[in-house]
Amino acid sequence: MKIVVIVGWILLRIMISTTTTEHKVLVVGSTGATGKHVVQMLLDRGDTEVTAITRSKDRLMGLLKNSEENFINNLTVVEGGIQEMSIDYLKTLCTTAGCTAVVSCLGHNITFHGMFREGLFVSESVQKLTTAMPKGCRFVMMGTDGVAHPDGSDPKRTRFERGVLRIMRWLLPPVKDNERSTGILFEDAKNDVSYDWVAVRPGDLTEIPEEAQPDATKNYEIHKHTFGSLFGDNAVARFQVAHFIANLATMDSESFQKFYNHKMPVIYQKKQVVDTDDDNEDSLLSTHE
């Protein structure tokens, strides 16, 4: 009964939607510290319909602007946990909504339950979503620069950092979960499973005040590979990561295929002091100034 109601609501939304709609994006992890910004930015575009999966509609609406009446015209909220949703349910949801992109901002909460009791739910959700997506749909995943590029092209970490990562992988399920999520995407590409994807790798995540957010969208860089120390060298605001992810979800197909498809771009905040390392310059994909 629940899926019938949701499908009916989505169909109604499609019937009354304006002809200006160019993108239809499903977002999971929509109430997270980064996901909430992604949802807001997609809604603010004016040409994008968003379907957000969340355990609490009230919580999501409380995080968004212009939600006083608990309704936003180009937003559909599906209440539930992605872990409990079957692939068939997600297929129906994605197909009915006409998704052009699926965005995953899923991550583990830094609590005992989040670290040790949620299992490998991120990679399991990635497997579900990429299987459920309709043909021609794009998958955009938020990861971390702690995950090395599977082809070995990232600069080699120091022996100390490699040792720390090995211990973390053994002790902390989220580390293994993040690596497994990326592995699923690369394995599918290797086996010619046909869908477009990009895995965004941010540095250390920070928060910025609301008044600084407009300038923040002009103050980050996209690189092909990681560089610097794993701990504290490169930071980026969640708001900036969300800005990049929203752009990837709505980018024209030609540009996406050329620059980002089946890649793992790294996003770092632009530093005030210019780094003269030639390797970093060679790694640079784009700047937002």
Fold and architecture overview:
The protein has 289 residues and is an alpha/beta fold. 42% of the residues lie in helices and 18% in strands. It contains twelve helices and eleven strands. The chain has helices at residues 2-16, 35-45, 57-63, 87-97, 112-116, 121-132, 159-171, 173-190, 213-216, 238-250, 253-259, 278-283; strands at residues 23-28, 48-54, 75-79, 101-104, 138-142, 196-202, 204-206, 220-223, 235-237, 266-269, 284-288. α2 (35-45) links the parallel β1 and β2. α4 crosses α6 (121-132), α6 (121-132) packs parallel to α8 and α7 crosses α8. The N and C termini lie far apart (49 Å).
Mean pLDDT: 87
Major sheet characteristics? 9 strands, mixed
Described by its quaternary structure, the protein is single chain
Stretches where pLDDT is under 50 for at least 5 consecutive residues are: none
Our count of helices gives: 12
Secondary structure class reads alpha/beta
Question: Which series of helices and strands comes N to C?
Answer: HEHEHEHEHHEHHEEHEEHHEHE
End-to-end Cα distance, whole Å, is 49 Å
Proportion of helical residues: 40-55%
In terms of DSSP E residues, the strand content is 15-25%
Strand order of the largest sheet: 3-2-1-4-5-6-10-8-11
Shape: globular
Radius of gyration based on Cα positions = 19 Å
* Number of strand segments: 11
